[in-house]
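Why predict the complex rather than its parts? Because the way molecules touch one another can change local conformation, and only a joint prediction can capture that. The input here totals 615 residues.
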Amino acid sequence: MTVTSKILLLVAGLALAACTNPDRFGGNGAGGANGVGGAGGALVPGSVNDPTSPAYFNQTVGDRVLFAVDQSTISPEGRAVLDGQANWLSTNTDFTAVIEGHADEQGTREYNLGLGEKRANAVREYLVSRGVAGNRLRVVSYGKERPIEICSTEVCYAKNRRAVTVLASGLTG
Amino acid sequence: MRVLAMLCACVTALVLGAGQVVAQGSGPLRIEITEGVIEPLPFALPVFEAETGDAGSLAAQLSQVVAADLTGTGLFRQIQPDAFISTVASFAAPVQFADWKAINAQALITGAVAVQGTQVSVKFRLYDVFSGAELGSGLQFTGTTEGWRRMAHKVADAVYSRITGEGGYFDSRVVYVSETGGKDARQKRLAIMDYDGANVQYLTDSSAIVLAPRFSPGGERVLYTSYETGFPQIYVLDVGSVQRRALDAQEGTMSFAPRFAPDGQTIVFSLSQGGNTDLWSTTINGGAAQRLTSAPSIETAPSFSPDGRQIVFESDRSGSQQLYIMPAGGGEAQRISFGPGRYGTPVWSPRGDLIAFTKQNAGRFHIGVMRTDGAEERLLTASFLDEGPTWAPNGRVIMFTRETQGEGGRASLYSVDISGRNLRPVRTPEGGSDPSWSPLLD
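Output of the joint prediction:
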């Protein structure tokens, strides 16, 4: 695959991910765009307008980044999301996170477990490079076991090739 | 495939000891599997005689399972009883070969079943109709009434073995992952069944994802990967007691893809740490894990050669998934796959001659086989998603996972023989994936 086509794929993937289809993780795709929340309006603790809430992290900061086929390289858009995650984690130090790496269904099961771990680890390393303590971040790969989109086309595959930062309260060390 | 010379009338009758293999070309009743069967061999199997008053229904069921085993191979065709001219009044009565010849039965299988309490005994004879002689001598199997299907499989194994000269595979089990729910809500649990899908028993519940079980060489234990702790970790389960325990794991790592070595003690598996997946080995009783590969790429899906001296595995060190062979203790690996596309999940045949694999090329998945040096690659299947081959104990048949496309996509088990013929679904109560075939039971 040429570099150009890789970039095109990435852009396509990100454009799709920007659609706001909340999934079972309550996220908004790779968004991370500055939309809801923040200043103004009544602040309901724990709600999406509460900047210290996991809901805010998931939906406003953006809980996930997407990857090109077979790749674990973090895209510029992904880096922007992860910068937001690193800031949030630096402010909200009561939270730890498990970074879940996922693959699309176009691959064998065990290879995809390895690939998902690579993706999750790439996110972890980036967050650590942005100052998040390594002992707050664990990685796990689900390979192709937990798709969020179930069609068998690139539209869905692009959203399934993801790493999701899942918050947990309390330090686990 | 070719059925040899059924016409040859001057052949001496074969009388072989139980379990003995018919030498190639030594008799008229013979299927050469290696040549691929084009025309299945017709056999007659009159319902086995009930020797005791209460054995009638068991005799009928047993006869059906023997016939189903044989026809299921694609190598045999059952002649329906309404075509029979002769009946077999008793197991001991002489056979009227002319009557069986007239309906073109090439093999005749007779049997008798006796029940005493919870014990059942089954005896059978196999006749070569055209030479008018018994092929091998009569055999008798005894077991519990509850395990009657095993006796049917043993009879069918003996028939298959005498006619093909190959080992049988019907008296065997398959451990697999039973699946329910849609793609985004899939529930998985370990299950074990007879090779033909009968007697399904669940070994775990579906509270945690379980993946890729593998039998120990003796079939009494199963290695698998479970997310019980939230992270993939290797477990070993005793099939008899259904007790399981986790193998030691290193903190902050993921381990998966465990496989037994032929010694039943050594285990090779994948360990992921810091974005890198390598192969490691350990033993069933714990002890320090030893690293076998140290490339920055993904090394997984190992499989031992039957002699335990080598491991075939997949790696994307070249930029895409390919197959490699290395010494069992680690060391330099030789790449063996060179065709277009990518190759994964290699599994060494129990005969040692072939490696089965999953191939992904041009948007399709295939199950294929190649020689251990990568030569003579043959693709046996093609679909949206075929993966994870496992070998029948005789190295002639492969079972694998086929998953269908799209929103309603579902995984199920299929089998195919290594000539690429006789592709057929293996019926399971729920969806199924990741089959692992046991060795022949005792």
